[in-house]
Amino acid sequence: MTGQGEKAIVYKGILFDLDNTLLDYDRSEEIAMREALAEHGLDPDNASFWKQFRHHFIRCNTVYWLERFERKLHISKVLELSFRDAFAELKLDGYEASSLAESYWRHFCRLFVPEEGAQEVIAQLHGAYKLAIVSNGIGEAQRQRLAAGRMEHYFEALVVSDEAGCAKPDPRIFHAALERFGLKPHEVLFVGDSLRDDYAGAVRSGIDFCLYNRRRSPLGDEHRPAYSIERLCELPGLLQSRER
PANTHER family in the record, alphabetically (predicted)? Predict the structure, then answer.
């Protein structure tokens, strides 16, 4: 909203988070993990095994993922250590963690699982706005997944944390995207699903934030995004209404 007599600034560029905003990371990870485990003789359809394995793997993987910059861990090592520790906690012997990590990564990088409406919305916005992605991920995977869905050509820039050397909510990764755009913070809207990474990073960078509240989670008073949507198909209408 703008005050009386105040002219709204029309956005010239839209930045998007990728995982769980344009692509369904959770579903992609599950599919790739199940395929990798089955490929190595484990049974991901066994509900008890799958639940226990997921619990241990996610906990281990979260630790190594957060430590990757400090310890200079390549994604292959992050995955290998995560599989190794998960298997150790499950007391499973005889499985090569590095081979499983390689299988998982191969499957994951080939998967294109879009969020509902993502392809249609991006195609609609393309040409009307400069589009770019700012992702806390791995460039190899993000590029291959977008290419698998033939979506990479829509974006003028793909700024990924492992290549930028910093991650959201660090403002530097947003500044890198703005430099490639040639735009100022107030000329850009950032769309993402994470309050911790996306919202906080946008606020620190002086960029308006649109929360993609895919889980319809309630917001506390400490979070005040400029906009909030529950479905991506709401975004074009939101942008058009703001520019009237």
Answer: PTHR47478, PYRIMIDINE 5'-NUCLEOTIDASE YJJG
Helices (H) then strands (E): counts for the chain: 10, 6
Sequence length of the chain is 244
**Side-chain half-sphere CA neighbours of 9 within 13 A:** 12
144 exposure class (CB count in 10 Å sphere: 0-12, 13-18, 19+): middle
The C-alpha angle with vertex 25 and arms to 83 and 162, in degrees rounded to 5, equals: 70
Q: Which domains does the chain have, with CATH numbers?
A: 13-23+114-242 (3.40.50.1000), 26-110 (1.10.150)
Dihedral sign for Cα 199, 208, 163, 97, please: positive
What are phi and psi for residue 159, nearest 5 degrees? -105, 115
- The answer, as to whether pTM is greater than 0.85, is yes
Sort residue 85 into left (φ over 0), alpha (ψ -120 to 50) or beta.
alpha
- With tokens 């906990």, the residue in question is 59
User: What is residue 129's DSSP assignment?
Assistant: B
3-7, 91-95, 122-126, 137-141: the lowest-pLDDT one: 3-7
Q: Report the largest interatomic distance among the alpha carbons of the chain, rounded to a whole angstrom.
A: 71
Mean pLDDT computed over every residue of the chain? 93
